[in-house]
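Q: I have 314 residues here and want to know how they pack in 3D. Can you give me a structure?
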Amino acid sequence: MTATSTRVQIPHSPMLAMLLMTVAMLIVPVMDIAAKYLSAWLPALEVTFGRFFFQFLICLVIAVAAGRITRLKARQPVINFVRGILLAVASLSFFTAVKYMSVATAISIFFIEPMILTVLAALILKEKVGIRRIAAILVGLLGAVIILRPNLAEIGLVSLLPAFTALVFSFYLLINKLYPVEDDLLTIQFGAGLSGALLLGCALLIGSYGEVEGYEFVLPTFGQTALLALIGLISFAAHGLVVAAFQRGSASLLAPLQYVEIVGATLFGYLVFADFPDGPTWVGIALIIGSGLYIAHRERLRKTGAQADAVPEM
């Protein structure tokens, strides 16, 4: 997740941080469930455009109401634009996936992201990866294969889209490592909403005028528009909750709570679509979660060791 400016010192509050993170992880699946529901009538491209357009609109309204419109100018406009594009591509990929598969399954596959990020960090940032983390990556990928196997047979290559989403989101996180965020949360969300809406809006126009099946604009009803606005609102709120959580608690404390998203996706998916993962899928989910937690643990130890080495002897 992105970080915000550290100019304002916020007191450390582990319990509040855990509460904020848990709430965020429980409401994110609601966005995905709404996207899956809308995909029965609207193209995934249009649903994704709606997410970023309404996120942009919400940020604009808040900025105007707070008299902060002139402060929306980013310090890293190009980097923020790239972040927004990567988020837009990742969201489009994921919303397309949930049209054909359950939200819980798609989210579970997406959580191979820590493994992909570890590999990318080793290849691009030249971070050292030990045999233990390599083993954890392989175990996590095995879990993904277990989940993917029946889906590949039933719906084909579209089942790989959550893995592609994880790859794109890993590049997004990698950019955050290379270029630490210098803007405040509202500016970041405004930039992501604007760049995502521009990219997806252009694609929607091309699809409509080119009469590309599955990518053309469909005029939404009032209820569908309200759901699109809800998706944008949840995106805005969830991002804010995650950032607020990380401002008040450590990454090692909060990392395990991201898997609450699978619980929420399973619950809401069952209530709305009667989708429930089968036995082998739960085995794959367990392998992915275990691998992700172990990688987070090893990363914490690596950072702790690096900080200890950096302390000069007295």
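Q: Anything worth noting?
A: Residues 14-305 form one domain. Residues 131 and 231 are 41 Å apart (CA to CA).
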